[in-house]
Write a structure and sequence with these properties.
Chain lengths: ~290, ~475
């Protein structure tokens, strides 16, 4: 029996939900009704078979990327490679580091191919591809803790900015991290680039050899992890304020280099309640709603 | 997250064929999608545990539901269908553990990001261990993996109570203490065995719904009472059917003719002579050494605890029943001419009294009640005005369940509840590194009441819309679980 992806509108009637295996997309388009319908139909068409396409080259996608050469065939696979290639000379990185952002971009691209939209996004588990027409903007909120409803920070992305991709990497996500950051959120030109850069910056937020950090080989946890036997972070014990800042500044150094190289537009690094922002995008503290905590 | 990062490899990895990624999944871990996992070599669907708060705030479905038409006011219309909070977020994964979640409903913000989960910091388990063995003194520290995770509390009838977890062990001590406490609570709540060591006391393996293993010995049954209590309970049933009864017990062996209960029934002296140390009339300590024989003693021939009958009282033809406190062992004797007890076939009505003792011995079990408090923020996920939810729970307008299981809500402020973990579906509990436990909680109430208390009415969906879609899935029930 052929496996069918799950494609349906969310109960709000506005957003489209696409799911297939580990790929999980939330899509929203704003525009006139016909365009939105056409865009959603195009997203659904493109989504069908996308996972199979990727899996056909999965073995290759799990290998360390070459900084120049790419033997991958699929358009999404090649986008993944292109996104990680700038980092491949200095760091270990596989195209899988950009899979979520690359898929999001692919679906957004399919939508833009058939419809006019004021704005749209494809959110692939936190790695988001954006579309904005003149005058439009997205307001992006960062919640520090979901048990406190307040939004800690907001980022405004408007059409005048060139950023069209957002991604977050960290040790609480579904992928393993070599670093200890709770989250590194990156704004970049494309979702694939943001995805790859967030991985690299997240890995750089680290305290090598610290006794309170428990690490285990990735393939002990997931036998077919693309990280092989590299040690991934399982647990971060209590860190002093100084250690938190030391770890964050390691990531900050990398983020500043990437910013200078034009690979990212900004980044927010979070560890143990501390947040460190690199870049110039609009960022303002939001008043947290005072609520008793559970 | 269901990925278990704390235990070593156990068992074989399996290959998931749910999608073309074809993940190899090791035992106890989940695949790339976080939805399929290897449970003891079997591929199971294990959606992440999503709390109501997050579910509701991001497009939630764990809100009151209507089956069809007008609601008749019953808590749940069809008893076979309970919508639980377990995995509530999976099908609409915009509230998966995703760092960014699009939700323009919150403060006019289009996207929000979630980096951690924080659920029940105020939680613990109350453990009842059916055993008469000494586990430890009241208030003695209970340890798991060497870390203090709780303490011994009161002894109850046939049982010892432990109180484990709580916010002080979870977050008030060392990081390791918190982690071990969290693991212990989660394992106990998920009906897994946990070894606990009581300071100055016993080592006990506790597993909800299973017999305790105290210092390596599995408890079989809760005895009906000590030997003396058994005499008291059954004296009337024995009266007139047998001249003497000895209930053999490692703790207190009871003798009917000497016991107060026998005296009240005017049962005549029999000239029986017990070994051991007499406590009060008809009650004897230390008739033998502890062991696995009759009544927790080391004896296999119960006559070994008797001396010769006193010829001044005893007479040939007198009858005697010897029975253990659980009814597992029983023999019937008649004194011969030399006043020696000779074993004979037990009369039918005495046999039924032995069966009655057995029937009254319940299986010795460990029971685990999970106890937690739903804080203001969780309640805010249900309604704009959290205190109204509390009031509606107190007024019994809202029923609280945990994974579909009934809970006891403590009187007083807040929503502090207790639930029998064996009544909950398998794998209902998760954890977050805070450390805190993730447990499902559902609030069920009338739609009109829900509106009145400031509920998120926009997200209410009819139950039929869940039933007719692929979202309803059988929850994996593991052996040993009660449905």
């Amino acid at each position: 029996m052929r496996r069918l992806p799950q494609i349906k509108l969310l109960p709000d009637g506005r957003r489209l939900h696409l799911n297939d295996g580990p790929i999980d997309l939330i899509v929203e388009a704003n525009g006139n009704g016909a365009d939105v319908r056409a865009a959603y139909a195009a997203a659904a068409r493109r989504f069908d078979g996308l996972l199979d396409e990727l899996c056909a080259e999965l073995a290759e996608l799990r290998k360390a990327a070459h900084p120049v050469h790419c033997h991958l065939k699929g358009v999404v696979a090649r986008r993944m490679h292109a996104a990680v290639a700038p980092f491949a000379r200095n760091w270990f990185i596989t195209p899988m580091a950009a899979v979520a952002g690359s898929v999001a971009e692919e679906i957004l691209g399919a939508m833009l191919g058939v419809a006019q939209m004021r704005r749209a996004y494809v959110n692939n588990g936190g790695d988001i591809a954006l579309h904005l027409e003149g005058g439009q903007q997205f307001c992006i909120g960062l919640i520090d803790r979901p048990d406190q409803l307040g939004i800690m920070h907001t980022l405004m992305v408007d059409a005048a900015h060139l950023s069209r991709g957002i991604a977050t990497s960290g040790r609480h996500g579904r992928s393993f991290s070599l670093g200890i950051a709770d989250a590194v959120t990156v704004l970049a030109k494309t979702a694939a680039q943001a995805d790859a850069a967030a991985t690299i910056i997240g890995n750089a937020v680290d305290l090598p050899g610290h006794p309170a950090i428990v690490r285990r080989p990735a393939n002990e946890l997931q036998p077919d992890s693309d990280l092989g036997s590299r040690l991934v972070t399982c647990e971060v014990g209590r860190l002093s304020d100084g250690e938190v800042m030391q770890a964050l500044s390691g990531g900050e150094g990398v983020a500043r280099n990437l910013l200078a190289a034009g690979l990212i537009d900004g980044a927010a690094l979070r560890l143990s309640g501390e947040i460190l922002v690199v870049g110039t995008y609009d960022q303002r503290a939001h008043h947290e709603r005072e609520l008793e905590t559970a | 997250m269901v990925t278990d990062t704390t235990t070593g490899a156990a068992g074989d990895k399996i290959r998931c064929d749910a999608c073309p990624v074809m993940c190899y999944i090791k035992s106890g871990a989940a695949g790339a999608c976080d939805r399929y996992a290897n449970h003891d070599g079997k591929l199971v669907r294990v959606d992440p545990h999503i709390v109501l708060e997050r579910t509701v705030s991001h497009g939630g479905r764990v809100v009151p539901f209507q089956a069809t038409g007008d609601w008749d006011g019953k808590i749940v219309r069809q008893p076979d269908i309970v919508v639980t909070a377990i995995g509530a977020g999976t099908t609409y994964p915009d509230y998966k553990p995703a760092p960014f979640i699009v939700s323009s409903e919150i403060d006019g913000v289009d996207m929000v990001t979630v980096v951690t989960e924080g659920i029940f910091s105020y939680c613990g388990v109350k453990v009842k261990i059916d055993t008469d063995r000494y586990l430890g003194a009241e208030t003695a520290i209970v340890r798991a993996q060497g870390e203090a995770v709780g303490h011994v509390t009161t002894s109850e009838y046939g049982s010892q109570m432990l109180s484990l977890g709580g916010v002080h062990h979870l977050t008030g001590g060392s990081k390791k203490e918190g982690r071990v406490t969290c693991d212990t609570l989660m394992d106990l709540s998920n009906c897994k065995p946990v070894e606990l060591k009581v300071d100055g006391g016993a080592t006990v393996i506790v597993e909800a719904g299973r017999p305790p293993i105290v210092n390596g010995v599995t408890e079989e049954r809760m005895r009906v009472g000590c030997g003396s209590a058994t005499i008291g309970m059954f004296a009337k049933q024995w009266h007139g059917k047998v001249d003497e009864v000895v209930v053999v017990d490692d703790h207190i062996t009871g003798v009917l003719s000497e016991h107060q209960a026998g005296k009240l029934l005017d049962i005549a002296d029999t000239g029986i002579k017990m070994k051991g140390r007499r406590s009060t009339p008809g009650r004897y300590f230390q008739v033998a050494e502890p062991g696995t024989g009759w009544g927790g003693t080391n004896i296999s021939d119960p006559l070994a605890i008797l001396g010769p009958f006193d010829a001044r009282e005893a007479r040939p033809g007198m009858t005697m029943l010897m029975v253990s406190t659980t009814g597992d062992h029983a023999s019937y004797y008649v004194l011969d001419q030399a006043l020696r007890p000779i074993e004979k076939e037990m009369p039918r009505d005495l046999k039924s009294s032995v069966e009655r003792i057995q029937e009254n011995c319940e299986p010795a079990l460990c029971t685990v009640l999970f106890m937690a408090g739903a804080g203001g923020s969780l309640r805010a996920g249900v309604t704009d005005n959290p205190v109204r939810l509390t009031r509606s729970v107190k007024d019994a307008l809202t029923r609280v369940t945990s994974g579909g299981a009934p809970v006891y809500v403590w009187p007083g402020g807040g929503i502090t509840f207790m639930v029998d973990v064996t009544q909950m579906p398998a794998g209902a509990f998760g954890y977050v590194p805070t450390p805190a436990l993730v447990a499902p909680i559902e609030f069920t109430l009338r739609l009109s009441d829900y509106g009145a208390l400031g509920g998120h009415m926009d997200y209410v969906r009819p139950l039929t819309s869940l039933r007719n879609s692929a979202e309803i899935r059988p929850m994996p029930y593991l052996p040993g679980r009660r449905a």
